[in-house]
Amino acid sequence: MNGNGGLRSFSKIMSPQSKAIVYERHGSPDSVTRVVMLPPVEVRENDVCVKMIAAPINPADINQIEGVYPVRPPLPAVGGQEGVGEVYAVGSRVKSLSPGDFVIPSPILSSEKLGTWQTYVVKEEGVWQKIDKMCPIEYAATIAVNPLTALRMLEDFVLLNSGDSVVQNGATSTVGQCIIQLARLRGISSINIIRDRAGSDEAKEKLKALGANKVFLESQLNVKNVKSLLGNLPEPSLGFNCIGGNAASLVLKNLREGGTMVTYGAMSKKPINVSTTSFVFKDLSLRGFWLQRWTSLDKAKECTKMIDYLIGLVRDGTLKYETELIPFEDFSAALDKALGKRGSHPKQVLRF
Ligand SMILES: NC(=O)c1ccc[n+]([C@@H]2O[C@H](COP(=O)([O-])OP(=O)(O)OC[C@H]3O[C@@H](n4cnc5c(N)ncnc54)[C@H](OP(=O)(O)O)[C@@H]3O)[C@@H](O)[C@H]2O)c1
Which residues form the Enoyl reductase (ER) domain (predicted)? Predict the structure, then answer.
């Protein structure tokens, strides 16, 4: 070991071996992933070796392994794009980080080749963003994608004022839970749509406890006049769709004339059907959001600030979402849950 924690071999700093979830071809993640011991790699002068602490299984990770995500790392690849780790060793020219710091991959610079589902990751200093060690690890591991997406989508499409409302489907998703709370913080009400499934009553109550103003099952919205269900809430001018199919039509149905629906996911893998009425009589607008497009703009400083802001909300109890920490050794059980094979589950977060 050297002073930095890494193993020294012929005066080079080397990382420890890394236990990793690797895929060599695209396909269903439960059939194409396997556990592999990767050999030590050199920690070059500008590199930082990070010992991973926790990493989530996000829908985009699944889509990437399936080969249906627009960004596909060269194969073989290690799964996972997000997570939190502790700096284990640094190269001789690294100035901003030291062993013991907690870091996440910066959403700005983390590449499609990151691979957070492994025990040690070696990447250049600029890939990592130092974060507050007091942030609970399940939040630190998941703060940079879903909460950031919720925050941006509330800010970037329609000017919302206190007293306005938004509508969304997939409200039980991590993004959905964040939208409810970040909207509420701005005095904005949320109308939430969830699918009809076992445990939906409990899911409704949990969303209400987060501050959801209305929560409807999809089947409850099969009425002609949805406005009558809104009580004294104003009709929303902004809607979010992460499901597609009928769930997207229900968002459109709730929007006021001139409203905008932002699509950011496609959990049902079904297309969006838009009625002529939506365009002609309601003049609705359809937009899309992709965090990776947003972060590829010149947003480094803003992004760091937003993540610090979101961590602050977590630390003061203003922002919560459900996660389930699961030991890395139980990856296949966590994957089954993330794939929905065992019903609905909170966000699965691997604990290394
Ligand atoms: N565009 C972007 O930049 C961006 C960024 C972040 C996330 N996303 C997308 O946002 C979506 C949500 O991500 P997340 O990480 O927040 O989700 P998550 O926490 O993993 O939750 C998954 C959500 O999808 C629902 N769901 C799963 N399978 C479904 C199906 N077949 N039909 C209908 N609903 C289904 C679940 O509902 P139940 O609770 O009923 O199981 C739950 O609400 C994903 O599509 C993800 O790729 C996009």
Answer: 27-350
For ligand 1, atom 16, which residue shows the shortest CA distance?
174
Confidence label for 7 from pLDDT (cuts 50, 70 and 90): low
Residues in the chain: 352
Q: What is the reported pLDDT for 342?
A: 86
Q: Determine the residue of 156, 267, 322 to mutate for testing ligand 1's pocket, defined as the one with the most ligand atoms within 8 A of the Cβ atom.
A: 267
The closest residue, in CA terms, to atom 32 on ligand 1 is 268
| Domains in the chain with CATH codes | 7-142+321-351 (3.90.180.10), 146-292 (3.40.50.720)
* Integer angstrom CA distances of residue 307 from 5, 147, 173: 28, 9, 19
Pocket flag, ligand 1, residue 190 (CB < 6 Å): no
Distance of CA 39 to the CA centre of its chain: 30
> Whole-prediction pTM value?
0.96
For ligand 1, mutation pick of 175, 179, 293 (most atoms within 8 Å of CB): 175
Q: 22 and 69 in contact (C-beta within 8 Å)? A: no
Q: Are 237 and 158 in contact (CB under 8 A)?
A: yes
